Description:
globular; disulfide bond; metal ion binding; Peroxidase_pln; secreted
Amino acid sequence: MVIFKIFVLLLSLSCFCQAQLSPTFYDQTCPNALSTIRSSIRTAISRERRMAGSLIRLHFHDCFVNGCDASIMLVETATMESERDAAPNFQSARGFEVIDQAKSAVENVCPGVVSCADIIAVAARDASEYVGGPRYAVKVGRRDSTAAFRAIADGGDLPSFRASLGQLSDLFLRKGLNTRDLVALSGAHTLGQAQCLTFKERLYDNSSDIDAGFSSTRKRRCPVDGGDTTLAPLDQVTPNSFDNNYYRNLMQKKGLLVTDQVLFGTGASTDSIVSEYSRNPYRFESDYAAAMIKMGDIQTLTGSAGQIRRICSAVN
């Protein structure tokens, strides 16, 4: 009886360990998984540099809606609404086809082994590294959801471009991320572009938190009565390189979105973090990598939960 109890205990501990995320999760089952993903992502970004920022954003928008489970990849069916069509994602979330291509490449090497959720997480790391960001060890072993969560995506779990610092802080806290994580992850806006619709109000409301020259320059491409889908770089100086210039922009009142500029200039605790990152790119990169790893742990499916999708856009 005692031996049986010990066996059950060891078995349960074994199952628990196997269900944990680890950088070495695929070392035995698919040793070429990460290098295959990396090659596919690098090829995509070499074709379109902007894709680096899009892939990082895709990971963020996946993790903040019911966890890092690739639910954002699912397309609408007769019985399921898609997160892709939620307001924060509609005609703005990008990179789906890049993840599909990476999945196809991995399936050719190891069919049915690597999850789409892991591919999204690894792609975000590979994307930032390719354009100058830090290389960090991505923990893998996630499984894919069997449903999408459109209502959650529309319900406030993704930040509005009009969100206040308090609203952002509360949202991140609900996801297990602290203020430093918020500021570090916002640094991903050193890459990518935004539609005029998301920042036009700031240009024309005589706001005191935006540099007049910066505002005047952006107005040329974002007229008051049109151009809502016209794109502008989040970082006007080095829009295609991962660096700490984003934080220098904030200190000069040149943050493009409301959610960027609220991080500096209000007298809040984030002011000192922005200032620190503007002076110390190595601290920024270290904190960014740590925050990305932390974000990748949000509400993951492991063990026997979920599934390994054959294609990322549909449930098996």
